[in-house]
């Protein structure tokens, strides 16, 4: 897989996706918006990646939306008859939202390793990850408010499920930065590391723990947690029972028990690749 916006590697069932435009502070240009869902779904479809780590290069994780997107008439249509322009703009925003939603829609857990600034659209992105980790120099901001617009690709929808409502409103209304220490105290990030190097080492170690488990079990966890977040406890329990009746098989459990008994490490089969309908 080759992309203009990312460097991608796959080792020991861990996919490492690095934003690769440090000279532009990894701003989210047109290529980024086109390539991110393709990258996520190709990694998912392979069946080889059991966890994805997203990190970055240079001084900042990402400066958010590249201003060139706002001035690109193909990317952001702002002309023509008012009703048709509005319909087209709505469709464009939905496509941008779908790009970031790909992180939570794929069956593979996504871990975000954040250093430096995580600004605007970048905050939208990491809110869609399963878990977030950062270095001590990291900071976060809903930058859109300061720029004169309302954040529109996920932060205002996902952040209230991760942080207290009153605080999210303060962050959205003011656009102020919140630090790594504040993010950790609030539970937005799982851990703060002293440096970018320590951050990446720590997150890859967590990814290795995930990759060592049954990918079927981990995929089921993600499916259930996502469903439960958006549904009642009663509905979620019913869905869990239905899922288990179809997906539960003792094979991976037996491998775990046998490995524990013999003091070895269990080896699990990958999930089957995702193929297009009727493909050979």
Count up the helices: 12
Rounded Rg: 20 Å
Shape: globular
What's the N-to-C terminus distance?
21 Å
What is the averaged pLDDT score? 93
Topology as a string of helices (H) and strands (E): EEHEHHEEHEEHHHEHEHHHH
What structural class should be given to the helix and strand makeup? alpha/beta
Low-confidence stretches: none
What's the β-strand tally?
Answer: 9
Family: Belongs to the enoyl-CoA hydratase/isomerase family.
GO biological process, one term: fatty acid beta-oxidation
Protein name: Enoyl-CoA hydratase
GO molecular function: isomerase activity
Task: Tell me about this structure.
- Keywords: Acetylation, Fatty acid metabolism, Isomerase, Lipid metabolism, Peroxisome.
- The protein is an alpha/beta fold.
- 49% of the residues lie in helices and 13% in strands.
- α1 (30-46) packs parallel to α3 and α10 runs antiparallel to α11 (233-247).
- It has two domains: 6-211, 2-enoyl-CoA Hydratase, Chain A, domain 1; 215-262, Lyase 2-enoyl-coa Hydratase, Chain  A, domain 2, CATH 1.10.12.10.
- β1 and β2 form a beta hairpin.
- The protein starts with 5 loop residues before the first strand and ends in an 18-residue tail after the last helix.
- The model has no long low-confidence stretch (mean pLDDT 93).
- It is globular, with a radius of gyration of 20 Å.
- It contains twelve helices and nine strands.
- The protein has a six-stranded mixed β-sheet with strand order 1-2-3-4-6-9, with helices on both faces. Strands 5-7-8 form a three-stranded mixed β-sheet.
């Amino acid at each position: 897989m080759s992309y203009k916006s990312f460097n991608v590697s796959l080792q020991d069932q861990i996919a490492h996706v690095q934003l690769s435009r440090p000279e532009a502070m990894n701003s989210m240009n047109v290529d980024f918006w086109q390539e991110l869902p393709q990258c996520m779904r190709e990694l998912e479809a392979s069946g080889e990646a059991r966890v994805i780590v997203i990190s970055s290069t240079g001084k900042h994780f990402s400066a958010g939306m590249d201003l060139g997107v706002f001035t690109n008439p193909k990317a952001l249509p702002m002309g023509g008859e008012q009703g048709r322009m509005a319909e087209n703009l709505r469709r464009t925003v939905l496509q941008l939202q779908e790009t970031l939603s790909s992180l939570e829609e794929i069956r593979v857990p996504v871990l975000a390793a954040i250093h430096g600034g995580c600004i605007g659209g970048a905050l939208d992105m990491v809110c869609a990850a399963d878990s977030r980790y950062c270095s001590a120099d990291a900071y976060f901001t809903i930058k859109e408010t300061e720029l004169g617009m309302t954040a529109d690709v996920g932060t205002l929808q996902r952040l209230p499920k991760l942080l207290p409502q009153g605080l999210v409103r303060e962050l959205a209304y003011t656009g102020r930065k919140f630090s790594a220490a504040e993010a950790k105290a609030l539970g937005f990030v799982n851990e703060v590391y002293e440096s970018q190097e320590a951050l990446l080492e720590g997150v890859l170690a967590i990814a290795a723990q995930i990759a060592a488990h049954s990918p079927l079990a981990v995929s089921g966890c993600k499916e259930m947690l996502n469903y439960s977040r958006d549904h009642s406890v009663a509905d979620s329990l019913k869905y869990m029972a239905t899922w288990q009746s179809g997906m539960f098989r003792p094979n991976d459990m037996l491998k775990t028990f046998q490995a524990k008994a013999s003091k070895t490490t269990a080896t699990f089969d990958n999930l089957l690749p995702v193929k297009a309908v009727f493909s050979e």
